[in-house]
Amino acid sequence: MKSVSLNLALQGGGAHGAFTWGVLDRLLDETWINFEGVSGTSAGAMNAVMMAEGWRQGGREGAKQQLASFWLAVAASDFSVRLPEQVEGAVTRFWLHAMRYLSPYDVNLLDINPLEDLLAKQVCFEKLRQNSPFKLFIAATEVATGKLKLFHERELDLPRLLASACLPNIHKAIEIDGAYYWDGGFSGNPAVFPLIYECVADDVLIILLQSLQRESLPVSAEAIAERVTELGFQSTFMREMRAVSNIRQYSSGSRWRQGWAERKVNGMRCHLLESDDSLDGLSRMSMYDNSKQFLIGLKDAGREACDQWLHTHQAKLGKRESCDVNGLFS
């Protein structure tokens, strides 16, 4: 196969990010695919940084090993809860309900975050800043303004990575240079535009953990609440892709309407890998399930989904898009 340079946009989704681990693990098997830029939000940011840190140390195989090391460490971490299935489900439902009324400033006074120690052991941020193999775009949301903030590889550190995955009902806001940040999913999940405007490669693969369309109407209170949450975390991505579609439709066929920005949007070759049935049938509670069996199962599902995607679309990489942007987002 002819070598292709690919940019990646990785959506967040808590423990569901193990699905993306599997997708990346499969992509890394293909030596003809190289990577230029990776945009990640929340769990997607974790995958992006682990892939870059592993590649920095040991190339493709190092990236695969680092991703595995991270997710297995998550499975073995202190925030793993080992309860009987029936009890665990009831406790998790109660916890999620209680989080609507309790603030981390009330119940997590010491601001304990097991992910902080885990990441500190997994990543040498100083060396990654100096020698990142990819351009990194790590999304966080500024609390005061609601604006998307992208942290690049040259400034990345532990607080900035934690900010991308800071859920405000669990952890206190992350302070960086006098500003406070929450999870990047509120403002860009994932952010695609830096891959268009700040990278040379035209192929962009967007890996989603939420399907673009739900087949059934949510009617129970729990199903409605879950769908509302999904829409909240996906709306910014949908608007961004709608803007891409609008720019293309407005500027197509008229060279005088196309400046540098329009040419970059029109030149992008968009590819989309959506979650499969293994994720679509899961409840919101499963995003907090970091049991090893669950994470490995999602990883295997991600590898299989990527394998099928490559079988269908790999011949299009470097040549043409494999998804209908206008049909999906306009």
Task: Describe what is shown at a glance.
The chain has 330 residues and is α/β, with parallel strands linked by helices. 48% of the residues lie in helices and 14% in strands. It is built from 13 helices and 8 strands.
Would you mind describing this structure in some detail?
Strands 1, 2, 3, 4, 5, 6, 7 and 8 form an eight-stranded mixed beta sheet that branches. Residues 80-88 have low confidence and may be disordered. Helix 1 packs across helix 2, helix 1 crosses helix 12 (292-313) and helix 2 crosses helix 5 (114-122). Strand 1 (4-10), helix 1 (17-27) and strand 2 (33-41) form a beta-alpha-beta unit. Helix content is 48%, strand content 14%. It has one domain (4-329): 3-Layer(aba) Sandwich (Cytosolic phospholipase A2 catalytic domain). It has helices at residues 17-27, 43-75, 85-98, 104-107, 114-122, 125-130, 158-164, 193-197, 221-251, 260-267, 277-280, 292-313, 325-329, and strands spanning 4-10, 33-41, 135-142, 148-152, 174-176, 179-183, 203-207, 269-273. Residues 8-196 form the PNPLA domain. A motif (GXSXG) lies at residues 40-44.
